[in-house]
């Protein structure tokens, strides 16, 4: 019996085993009250090398209890290495890692019982049914079957797989497989859950259900560390976001705080059919304009931060006697922040 994709995760008895993961979430910004100030995860000056390559370069991370924490970085930035070090799956050269105030080591079995992992690749057993898969992965943390039975039922209900409980994974759609993956990882009710791109290649309806599920889990008390290449997801559910690259901590804050760190402001699109070359040159020379392009139908202007950009742009268009149709003004996005800080798109 082998899983459809191999995944290595920690489990309650120690060691390493293939595993899979979903159960109850919070509304954005609803950080659960904690009676202490002890971080759920604290990583300090972590260094990890692979030969001559530095994967983590004095990397710092602090996750508060009860928050949904977004961890963003381009491919090769060190996200997976950092997570594997936190889970004590990788040895590292120097630095400290503490989970719920305790040092995290390969033999920290009590801490591992409090952790759930939902990997990017679905890793469940094709020979087992939905219910049997969830029961198996829950058994890695909860050995007594009588204790597991209510947890398995609750996990199935949580991901809304009740009518599919007797199905094998091969009969499930991509979205249902993702839900099964989540159920396998959270059936034991962990206090800390890692979600690694849980919505890859799923339909919009399933994606929305998964995000709502993560928020319910958070609202029920779980601390969540979330990675994704979908910026709108991160902005929707994460309380704080850390951007990393080349193994380093680049920026940390809420989505609005991160957007305030960059010079780029709104992007204005104006529908106009008669913009002259001289007018375009004049618009590009405006002090708040970063870039402007015109395709004969739409003028698109990327602006620096400012309060009167739209008014000043429309004044310039009036001076040129350009007819203006539909116009839109879009604020900066997390992707703009990411591009300015790392110089690359998130999927690079």
From TrEMBL:
<dbReference type="InterPro" id="IPR027417">
    <property type="entry name" value="P-loop_NTPase"/>
</dbReference>
<dbReference type="GO" id="GO:0005524">
    <property type="term" value="F:ATP binding"/>
</dbReference>
<dbReference type="InterPro" id="IPR003439">
    <property type="entry name" value="ABC_transporter-like_ATP-bd"/>
</dbReference>
<dbReference type="Pfam" id="PF13732">
    <property type="entry name" value="DrrA1-3_C"/>
</dbReference>
<dbReference type="GO" id="GO:0016887">
    <property type="term" value="F:ATP hydrolysis activity"/>
</dbReference>
<keyword id="KW-0067">ATP-binding</keyword>
<dbReference type="InterPro" id="IPR025302">
    <property type="entry name" value="DrrA1/2-like_C"/>
</dbReference>
<feature type="domain" description="ABC transporter">
    <location>
        <begin position="41"/>
        <end position="271"/>
    </location>
</feature>
<dbReference type="Pfam" id="PF00005">
    <property type="entry name" value="ABC_tran"/>
</dbReference>
<keyword id="KW-0813">Transport</keyword>
<protein>
    <submittedName>
        <fullName>ABC transporter ATP-binding protein</fullName>
    </submittedName>
</protein>
<dbReference type="InterPro" id="IPR003593">
    <property type="entry name" value="AAA+_ATPase"/>
</dbReference>
<keyword id="KW-0547">Nucleotide-binding</keyword>
């Amino acid at each position: 019996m082998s899983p459809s994709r191999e995944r290595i995760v920690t489990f309650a008895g120690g060691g390493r085993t293939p595993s899979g993961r979903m159960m109850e979430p919070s509304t954005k910004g609803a950080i659960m009250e904690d009676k202490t100030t002890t971080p759920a995860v604290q990583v300090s000056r972590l260094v990890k090398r692979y030969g001559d390559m530095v994967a983590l370069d004095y990397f710092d991370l602090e996750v508060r209890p009860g928050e949904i924490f977004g961890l963003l970085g381009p491919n090769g930035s060190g996200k997976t290495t950092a997570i594997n070090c936190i889970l004590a799956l990788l040895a590292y050269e120097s630095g400290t890692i503490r989970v719920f105030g305790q040092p995290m080591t390969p033999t920290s079995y009590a801490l591992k019982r409090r952790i759930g992992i939902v990997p990017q690749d679905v890793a469940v057993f094709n020979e087992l049914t939905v219910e049997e898969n969830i029961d198996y992965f829950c058994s890695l943390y909860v050995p007594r079957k009588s204790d597991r039975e209510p947890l398995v039922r609750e996990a199935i209900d949580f991901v809304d797989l009740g009518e599919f409980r007797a199905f094998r994974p091969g009969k499930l759609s991509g979205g249902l497989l993702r839900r099964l993956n989540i159920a396998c990882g959270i059936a034991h009710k962990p206090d800390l859950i890692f979600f690694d791109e849980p919505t890859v290649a799923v339909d919009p309806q399933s994606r929305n259900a998964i995000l709502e599920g993560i928020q319910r889990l958070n609202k029920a008390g779980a601390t969540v560390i979330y990675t994704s290449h979908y910026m709108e997801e991160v902005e929707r559910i994460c309380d704080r976001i850390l951007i990393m690259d080349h193994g380093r901590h680049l920026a940390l804050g809420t989505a609005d705080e991160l957007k305030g760190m960059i010079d780029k402001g709104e992007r204005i699109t104006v529908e106009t059919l008669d913009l002259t070359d001289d007018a375009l040159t004049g618009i590009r020379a405006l002090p708040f304009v970063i870039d402007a392009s015109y395709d004969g139908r739409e003028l698109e202007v990327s602006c620096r931060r400012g309060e009167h950009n739209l008014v000043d742009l429309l004044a310039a268009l009036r001076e040129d006697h350009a007819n203006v149709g539909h116009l839109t003004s879009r604020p900066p996005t997390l992707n703009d922040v990411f591009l300015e800080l790392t110089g690359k798109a998130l999927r690079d």
